[in-house]
Amino acid sequence: MENTEENPIDHEVEFFRRLCNDVCKGDVNLPTLPDVALRIKKALDDPDCSTAKVVRVISTEPVVTASLIKLANSAAFSPSNKPVTELKSAITRVGYDTARNTAVSIAIKNTFNPNKAGPLKDHLKKLWQHSLTVAAIAYVLPNKPPGINSDEAMLAGIVHDIGKFYILMRADNNPALFNNKETLEELITLWHADIGKVILESWGFSEAIIQATDEHEVLDQKTVRAANLTDVIIVANLLSYLEKPSRYDDVDYATLPSFISLSLDADNITKIMSESKTQINSMIQALS
C-alpha cells in the first residue's frame, strides 16, 4: 500500500522555496516603517531642528515618550541616579540619536506584533529580547573602530535580525512550520540575513547597518579589512549567547577575526560583560 502521509519537513522546504523565489524576483511584500518612526527620524535627522520641535514631535507618541524617560533614568544614562520626569530633560540626557533609536525600536516591535497567543508570539518575544540584548552589548562595547559611535552600534543591534521577524510573520499562516523547531530554526538561519538586507534597503538605512545585518553571522572573514560596524555586531551577537546553550557552544570567540580586530581576548571579554551587566540589563528593560 502506498504511503501518502505527508512529510512534516516538506512544509518547511516548500515555505522557504516560495519565500526565496519571492526574494529573488523582488516580489517580497515588505513591511513599511511606521509613520511614528518616520516622523521622529525625519525631525532628528535635520541638523537645524530645534529641541523644542523634537519635543513636540515625540510628545505626540506616549509610548516613545515613556520609553525615553525610562531610558534616561536607567543605569546606562543616569550614573548619578538623578531622575528626570519630563521629555525635554530625557532627550537632553540620552541625545538625539538614542531618541531616534528608541522610536525605531518601538516601531519595529509594533510592526511585528501578532497580538495573539500561540507559537508565533513566543518566538517573537524571544527574538525581540535577543535583539535588545545585542543592541545593549553593542552600545557598551569598548574598542569600537574609529567613526563607529555607540548609538549607531545600538541601532544596528536592534535591526540585525529583522529578517527573522519577517520570516516568522510570514510563517504565521503556516502553523505546521512550528511542529519541527529544529528544521525551522535551520532554515531561518540560512535565509534571514538576505531578507533583512532587502528590508533595511527599502527602509533607507545606512550601508554600514545593512552590511552588518547581512554579514553578522559570517564569523570567519576571509578578506583582510579594517574593523567596522559588522565586527561590532558579530561580537555583540556572540556575546549575547554567553552562558546560554546555542549553536556557538564550540566556537572559541577570542580566535575569531572580529574579536581580534577589536582587541578582545578571553580575559577582557569576561571583564567587559561583568562590569557592564547592570548597564546592559537596564537598557534592555527600558527598551522593552
Structural commentary:
The structure is a single chain. This protein is an all-alpha fold. The chain folds into two domains: 80 residues, no CATH class; 174 residues, Hypothetical protein af1432. Helix content is 64%, strand content 0%. It is built from 15 helices and no strands. Helix 6 runs parallel beside helix 8 and helix 10 runs antiparallel to helix 11.
Short note summarizing the structure:
With 288 residues, this protein is mainly α. It has 15 helices and no strands.
List keywords for this structure.
288 residues; mainly alpha; Hypothetical protein af1432; 15 helices; globular; disordered N terminus
List the helices and strands and how they pair.
Layout: H1 8-25, H2 35-45, H3 51-59, H4 62-72, H5 87-94, H6 96-111, H7 119-140, H8 150-159, H9 162-171, H10 181-202, H11 207-215, H12 229-239, H13 257-261, H14 266-275, H15 277-287
Helix pairs in contact: 1-10, 2-3, 2-6, 3-5, 4-5, 4-6, 4-15, 6-8, 7-8, 7-9, 7-12, 7-15, 8-11, 8-12, 9-10, 10-11, 11-12
